Amino acid sequence: MPKNKKMHFFFVSMMTCSVLSLWGCQSSSKPSKAQYSTAERPLQVIRSQDGIQNVRLKIIEINGQKAKFFQQEPYLELRASHKLLSGHTGCNPVIGKYTLNTQLLKIDFDARTGHQRCDGALPQEAELIQILNEIQAYKMLGNRIQFLNARGQVLLMTQK
């Protein structure tokens, strides 16, 4: 095939592909406005009806002592979708899982924490992890939640 014929064949092939591509685009349905939207939407958090799950619980007392702020405010969050515990001791993150019976007001934690060091935080952190693993029940008092051991003693006080 002569060079001109090859170029002509190549040119005709490319034009045919281009025309078919444009024709295919023209025949497709118009996208909705939602497909053009680039605005971010916040993730919808579904709050649990029980008042204890999917809520950030600020830790205000640990074993009767006011919780201390180190690098950040200590808190817990019980994520209902997978029964995961997350939070912070004030120095390190808290992770774990939990079981909950809202009818009997019973709860059981399996909690662990990280290993970063903060001046003076170790006693509060060690006590928090220990009592989380001793908690067996809870009481709702308005916007506060008391977490109790098997004898009914308040080990942890949180606030929504």
UniProtKB/TrEMBL annotation:
One Pfam entry name: META
Sequence ranges assigned to domain DUF306 in this UniProt record: 53-156
Protein name: META domain-containing protein
The entry's keywords: Signal
Signal peptide: 1-21
Organism: Acinetobacter wanghuae
Cited InterPro entries: DUF306_Meta_HslJ, HslJ-like_sf
